[in-house]
């Protein structure tokens, strides 16, 4: 799926990444337990998948559970794991029926055997989807991702299969868990916060950032369409000047 930089329209991002923030605050506003916000957020997930598929986005990556989220209260983590398990079992067929391929990215070993099995089953069920690749980042951190890529390359050097001088940015990029996917074009964060929170650090090197004050459960179809429309209005220069891009008569994308 990876393409080299070429003269194509940037009106539609190839890869959209979303930090789904604000579930707990949404619930607190309604005097509900935090997990109620995460449950409500499932409808927002369905909405953004529908909009991205309609817009012909190639990859949608959702930050579901970070490597730092294990620090949350044990009862909340347990509730999130139960919700994740139920969502995988309930949504996998819906995704398959709509041509959506699911991939879970992150370090799986810390999850229960039951949850790991459900991840594998959902991925297998949706493997034939060609309309959109949905990547769910679970127990994922951008620093962990870069570290595991560096370790892979170090093992290749130690084994004599690779020279240190051969290590270049593109080679390291291909060792990331998203190495066969295009770089992130648009990163959306809901909930009013304006940071990327250790999400896809390498992959977002040239991403356009879009921050929404809406809590995640309220980020539905129109909000997602507005984010895509905002992206389409931006000029992506990739180190060049506005005048150079205008002279070329194109808006380069990667």
Quick structural summary:
With 254 residues, the protein is of the alpha/beta class.
Describe this structure in words.
It is a single chain. With 254 residues, the chain is of the alpha/beta class. The protein is 43% helix and 14% strand. It has 8 helices and 6 strands; from the N terminus they run βααβαβαβααββαα. It has helices at residues 23-29, 34-55, 74-97, 113-125, 142-158, 169-174, 221-232, 242-248, and strands at residues 15-19, 59-66, 100-105, 132-140, 186-189, 208-211. It has a 6-stranded parallel beta sheet with strand order 3-4-2-1-5-6, with helices on both faces. Helix 4 links the parallel strand 3 and strand 4 (132-140). It is globular, with a radius of gyration of 19 Å. It starts with 14 loop residues before the first strand and ends in a 6-residue tail after the last helix.
